[in-house]
Design a protein that fits this description.
The structure holds two protein chains of two kinds.
Chain A: H1 3-36, H2 42-46, H3 59-90, H4 95-108, H5 112-126, H6 133-157, H7 161-169, H8 174-202, H9 206-209, H10 242-252, H11 258-293
Helix pairs in contact in A: 1-11, 3-6, 3-8, 4-6, 5-6, 6-8, 7-8, 8-11, 10-11
Chain B: E1 5-16, E2 19-30, E3 34-38, H1 45-52, E4 61-68, E5 71-72, H2 80-86, E6 87-90, H3 101-105, H4 107-111, H5 117-130, H6 134-137, H7 150-163, E7 168-172, H8 180-193, E8 198-202, H9 206-212, E9 215-220, E10 223-229, H10 230-235, H11 240-246
Parallel strand pairs in B: 3-8, 3-9, 6-7, 7-8
Antiparallel strand pairs in B: 1-2, 1-4, 4-5, 9-10
Helix pairs in contact in B: 5-7, 7-8
């Protein structure tokens, strides 16, 4: 065949396959949203779940999911960032750091059920945290760390080598170069990575079933004391998240409108993750613009 | 020969792992002159240059003496950050930080803890004038340095190095990423700078060496082959290898 013909054929094949992938994903998304959005109402978002009657909402589950994401990021961002700084700025290229990288890669492909059961054994039973937001946050941290570390490391590595050299050449110490030059330049990438990872842990269910628990005891949104057992901020209370709720409603839900609740929850979940992703882009863009303009 | 010496290296050797890149180089860099280091790629000239303010600390093993004001600065106990403020460096490619022009220039001063606005303002103007950039940027000092052209960025980086008032400026192929107009602007700048500073420059561009350098050192395969006044090196090389290199037989 002539080169032009091969070229045209290859382009057609690539476009067809790409279109197919896009179509499947898009169809799935549209289907989920179309079947869920009609069930979303102010009442659905602001009332608590029912156990037996229909008409329950997802207020607590939605809040729990968001709160759990915040707690997880509070634990995992400092850890991931420090690990990433070590790996990208300080780590020598030797067997030990290769082992470390391998461990991170293996950790990133760990099935979340395994992480959940590990969390159940260690955090819930061994450490005596019981089913709690904190145990859930720690389990999610295990899931999140490898991805976030990788994202931070990539962001740091993208800062040109010469920028570091320029800092050193001005008499800065390595630590100052890292904190004053490399870190600010990598910030958009780090924040984007953190928000994207937030989207991922927002949808996690399997790791939470045995750590954050499947029950949602009555909580008060006016009790701001995080040590009070009924406070919405208490990290030691059990908390069913949105994703766990979807799983539970589908597997053992007794409410007559289980299907509607499930569909609505799925739509809320997807929309929230969509917001996370858009937010990540927007914030990354804002910081980039601010950095370029800073005076 | 020369009345004052800015920097002297004695028996300098540089090794990457067990690869010997610079062999036993001894030379004296004259003060307030431009010294050009020429030689083919891999001749060790950049490595030698980067060793002079210890930028190779993490990458290579540097043996021998580097004497700066009667002090051998190639010792672990010497404060390397202080040394780099006195022996500054400009790189192949412009390396502005993503900050305003003003903030770029005073970066090293801020680092040294200078806060007095008057001193900062004054040093910004002085450094930018010395780098021959003042007239072009004086009305937009608050704007991003990233908006400048490549040649302007490189002169900004020179100004940033000048602002901490070093004695010696090392330049690693400072114009290799620039167009001919920017290159000649930088070369003009260098000639003016040598009144106050000592400049040691690595260059691949032999016209550049012959145009702007007072002294030229020719390196080949990690050895210093010949070091002399630029006119002598180019018109009357003493070594066959130098003559071959200059006439384009290799490199």
């Amino acid at each position: 065949m002539r080169p032009e013909k091969v070229d045209r054929l290859a382009t057609v094949i690539i476009l067809t396959l790409t279109g197919l992938v896009g179509l499947v994903l898009f169809a799935l998304l549209v289907y989920l949203l179309l079947s869920g959005i009609p069930h979303i109402s102010w009442h659905f978002l602001t009332s608590s779940a029912e156990s037996f009657r229909s008409g329950g909402g997802i207020r607590d589950q939605l809040f729990n999911s968001l709160y759990l994401v915040v707690l997880t990021l509070i634990v995992s961002i400092p850890l991931a960032l420090c690990a990433a700084i070590y790996l990208s700025e300080y780590a020598p290229d030797n067997r030990w750091t290769n082992l470390l990288r391998l461990a991170i890669e293996v950790l990133s492909s760990l099935p979340s059920v395994v992480v959940g059961l590990f969390g159940y054994l260690v955090f819930v039973l061994q450490w005596g945290l019981d089913f709690s937001l904190l145990a859930g946050a720690l389990a999610l941290t295990i899931l999140n760390l490898p991805i976030l570390t990788r994202a931070c490391e990539d962001a740091l590595r993208q800062v040109p080598y010469l920028q570091r050299q320029a800092g050193l050449g001005l008499g800065m110490s390595k630590w100052r170069v890292t904190t004053k030059i490399v870190l600010p330049a990598a910030l958009p990438g780090i924040i984007t990575g953190a928000i994207l990872s937030a989207g991922r842990i927002f949808g996690e269910a399997a790791a939470l079933i045995y750590t954050a628990g499947q029950s949602s005891p009555a909580i008060s949104y006016t009790d701001w004391n995080p040590f009070s057992p009924t406070s919405f901020l208490n990290p030691l209370r059990p908390a069913e998240t949105l994703a766990v709720h979807i799983w539970k409603v589908n597997s053992e839900g007794l409410v007559p409108d289980a299907r509607a609740v499930s569909n609505g929850s799925v739509a809320v979940l997807i929309l929230t993750i969509l917001i996370f992703n858009l937010l990540a882009r927007y914030i990354g863009y804002l910081i980039k613009r601010r950095l370029a303009k800073r005076g | 020969m020369e009345n004052s010496v800015a920097l002297e290296v004695k028996n300098l050797q540089v090794l990457y792992g067990d690869k010997h890149v610079v062999h036993d180089v001894s030379m004296k860099f004259p003060a307030n002159k431009i010294t050009a280091m020429i030689g083919a790629s891999g001749s060790g000239k950049s490595t030698l240059l980067r060793s002079l303010n210890r930028m190779n600390d993490d990458l290579a093993t540097v043996k021998g003496e580097i004497n700066f004001h009667d002090l051998n600065i190639n010792q672990p106990k010497v404060n390397v950050y202080r040394i780099r403020q006195q022996i500054g460096m400009v790189f192949q490619q412009p390396t502005p930080f993503p900050l305003s022009i003003y903030e770029n220039v005073i970066y090293g001063l801020r680092l040294a803890g200078v806060k007095d606005r008057q001193i900062l303002d004054q040093r910004v103007e002085e450094s930018l004038r010395q780098a021959a950039l003042w007239e072009e940027v004086k009305d937009h000092l608050k704007e991003s340095a990233l908006a400048l052209s490549g040649g302007q960025q490189q002169r900004l980086c020179i100004a940033r190095t000048l602002a901490v008032q070093p004695e010696i400026i090392l330049m690693d192929e400072p114009t290799s990423a620039l167009d001919p107009v920017s290159t000649s602007q930088i070369e003009d700048t260098l000639v003016q700078l040598k009144e106050k500073f000592t400049i040691i420059m690595v260059t691949h561009n032999m016209q550049q060496a012959s145009r702007s350098a007072d002294w030229t050192a020719f390196m080949h395969q990690g050895k210093l082959i010949e070091f002399n006044q630029t006119a002598d090196i180019f018109m009357n090389p003493q070594q066959q290898q130098t003559a071959d290199y200059l006439s384009g037989k290799f490199g």
